Amino acid sequence: MIARIWDGVTEAGRADEYAEYVRRTGVGDAVATEGNRGMYVFRRKKGDRAHFRVISFWESMDAIRRFAGEQPERARYYPEDEGFLLALEPEVLHYDVAVAAGVAPEKSGGAGEAARLAEELRLVARDDAWHGPGLASLVANVSPEQAAARPIGGGHSIWECALHIAAWNEVFLRRLAGEVVDEPREGDFPVPAAPTAAAWNEARGWLGTSHERLAERVSHLGERELQAKVPGRDYDVAFMVRGAIRHAVYHSGQIGLLKKTR
User: Fold this and answer.
1) How far apart, in Å, do the first and last CA atoms of the chain sit?
2) What is residue 187's three-state secondary structure?
3) Which of these, 33, 159, 184, 203, could form a disulfide with 147 (CB 3.0-4.6 Å)?
4) Distances in Å between the alpha carbon of 126 and those of 30, 51, 65, 130, 139?
């Protein structure tokens, strides 16, 4: 296993903002890369500066190249890094992990896989989703009337798709809690409320919070939990979570198509 280490410094007042930015960019891309075995972001405030150290773990240098490119010793930066960092360190350090006891990231299952799955769930919901516009972006500029419209025959509306995703996120959460659940309490496609701004805002809020709650719960799953059978099903938890990701991506595409018909 190889540890990849990068250091950076920001203003102390922007430390929380930068930590979230790193989570959305570098952490998300790294843990979604084949061969990544986990990642830590450390922060230390001293005076008016915040010092960051990012350590990622990899199966091989080839895995690192999949993330960093053909010059893996070069630091990988994102567009807004220059606005946050006081200097852009050009290089990173790589170390072979000589001893790993107890807290080392795992190759598969456990904390490493749980972190990757949770980050994929978050990527689907955010504006920087790997497949195109994320759910938050797709529903952000839709009016209640547009959300309730049915432009395609007997097809579902944007509002119904949003409620459907949120309702099934709740099913996945209940199954993770040990319940045997066949479908949402509200029905497979919950019936939207009257198309008012307040009701549509509530629906969008449920969509966002249900997705984040699911991602947060998944991030804490251990190896045994990921490999355990889902209550009442013949597949394991990891398979269900991957299905939840694909489910959200599929209906994101539906929402995107419905927006183009308005």
Assistant:
1) 51
2) coil
3) 159
4) 17, 27, 26, 9, 11
Number of other residues whose CB lies within 10 A of the CB of residue 249 = 18
- In angstroms, the CA 212 to CA 209 distance is 5
Tokens of 262: 């308005």
Per-residue pLDDT tens digits for 173-205? 999 999 999 999 999 999 999 999 999 999 999
Please indicate, yes or no, whether the overall pTM of this predicted structure exceeds 0.70. no
Return the CATH number of the domain spanning residue range 2-96. 3.30.70.100
The upper half-sphere exposure of residue 210, i.e. CA atoms within 13 Å in the direction of its Cβ, equals 24
Domain range list for the chain: 2-96, 110-260
- Sequence-distant (≥ 6) Cβ neighbours of residue 46 within 8 angstroms: none
Query: Going by C-beta distance under 8 Å and a sequence separation of 6 or more, which residues neighbour residue 237?
Result: 176, 221, 225, 226, 227, 228, 229, 230
Looking up tokens 């930015």 gives 21
